[in-house]
Amino acid sequence: MKPATAAKKLGILADAAPEEFRNGVISRDTLAELSADPPQWLLDLRANGPHPRQVVAAKLGVSTSGLARAGVNDPLTTAEISDLLTNRPKWLVTERATQAGVRQEKERISNERRGAEALAGEDGDDADMIDGQHSDD
Where is the composition biased (Acidic residues) (predicted)? Predict the structure, then answer.
């Protein structure tokens, strides 16, 4: 696979990886090896960054769209992310609230679906009942 794809799967920024990683083709076996027993450079990148957008968004508790709305277009280091979490700029508070609302709405919809499926299952079980007994009894 391409180095950019492998980097995404490893949760790192491809441009920050060593040259031999960026210039090579990564096999599935190599990717599995890197995941199972990460070399020091990979551990350092995961710990300190710079981090790709999806990792930055996850660490900040916002969406990648929220990062874009806030004008955060560049990769951030762990120290920069920590600074944002400590200082909590207005955009971060707003985007975290938006993300929390999205999660709550997804959970509400999921609960409604489970409830509807449970009711449908109950209705299906009782569909063949006559006078409180199953018709095949």
Answer: 120-129
